[in-house]
Amino acid sequence: MSEFQDADSVLEPTLQNVVDQTSLKWIFVGGKGGVGKTTCSCSLAVQLAAVREKVLVISTDPAHNLSDAFRQKFSKTPSLVNGFTNLYAMEVDPNPDLSEVEGLGGMEGEVGFLADISTSIPGIDEAMSFAEVMKQVQSFDYSCIVFDTAPTGHTLRLLQFPSTLEKGLNKLMSLKDSFGGMVSQVSRMVAPGGEDMVDQLMGKVEQLKRVVEEVNAQFRNDELTTFVCVCIPEFLSLYETERLIQELAKFEIDSRNIVINQVIFPEEVGTSRLLAARVRMQQKYLDQFYDLYEDFHIVKLPLLDEEVRGPDAIRNFSVNLLTPYHPQPRPEDGQPLPAAAGSNSLLEELRRTVEEQRKRIAELEAQLAAAKK
């Protein structure tokens, strides 16, 4: 056991291993909702942009946050992030128009009958949109792509898109084999030359399927792909992270880094009993993370006093991914943190709130004692 711990001790509590692995092409950042995935993915993309030629960060969450994080409007096509020369961002359309997706477009009159058949397959719209995104990504030749994923359940669906496409294609093939004659007749009534619609549609879907299958093979290559799990030190997040890592193992996707966000460090607690209780609660789950994931790089990020928004704020925060965060020493009772120490104003506000409540309780107790006399 000691030998294993000695080997584990060399694992740095940073994401430096991700930045240094120049062979990585696909980097997924995911976890439970509300743990700070977007901030972490943007921060990681900023660090990668410092050492890579061309980096793209993609939001696959229907409730996009990249625009809010960078304070810049993004769309379904890659855009250069303000303040950078080689960092691009895009947000996947959560409700794609299948007539604009290459797998279903490009033929006269096909957007009625056959598109309706295609959209009847559960999940096919998202899968086709994802396939089209993959084609765009490959055509722009980015050196690295960071995925800011949706909460865990949606992320697992995203990783299942290749099989979804395959099932959809097989269903279309079965429809063609079973009702080929009838489909051709109806197609001729819908649009001129409709008898060739099925073959053209199948050819394009097969083309998209090949693209996604190629990407899927790359996802399973730990030299090209890794998944960074983001969480907070609470029970539900710990449970969700364990579920995610187990599912990633089933998909054969590499995962060796965990970012624990919103950590309150004991040095910053001061005299607050509330913060001290939160630290004890968090420490219980931090210990469990370290016990469960001894062979992972575990990065701890602090609870901040304000949102991380804008290129400068993200750039400053991203340093914590490569350099372990060191909190300021705890002040003496009644002494505030030095202004130059970069104290956490949110913690200071919580301390002030606690002190105000204590004073209020003391006043009420004094009034109660006076009323009893």
UniProtKB/TrEMBL annotation:
It comes from the Eukaryota. It is found in: Cytoplasm; Endoplasmic reticulum. CDD domains: ArsA. One of its GO terms (molecular function) is ATP binding. The keyword Hydrolase applies. One of its GO terms (biological process) is tail-anchored membrane protein insertion into ER membrane. ATP binds at residues 32-39, 234, 261. Pfam families: ArsA_ATPase. The keyword NADP does not apply. Keywords: ATP-binding, Coiled coil, Cytoplasm, Endoplasmic reticulum, Hydrolase, Nucleotide-binding, Transport. GO terms for cellular component: GET complex. Residues 198-225, 340-367 form a coiled coil. InterPro entries: ArsA/GET3_ATPase-like, ATPase_ArsA/GET3, ATPase_ArsA/GET3_euk, P-loop_NTPase. Homodimer. ATPase required for the post-translational delivery of tail-anchored (TA) proteins to the endoplasmic reticulum. Recognizes and selectively binds the transmembrane domain of TA proteins in the cytosol. This complex then targets to the endoplasmic reticulum by membrane-bound receptors, where the tail-anchored protein is released for insertion. This process is regulated by ATP binding and hydrolysis. ATP binding drives the homodimer towards the closed dimer state, facilitating recognition of newly synthesized TA membrane proteins. ATP hydrolysis is required for insertion. Belongs to the arsA ATPase family. HAMAP family: Asna1_Get3. NCBIfam families: GET3_arsA_TRC40. This is ArsA/GET3 Anion-transporting ATPase-like domain-containing protein. It comes from Chlorella ohadii.
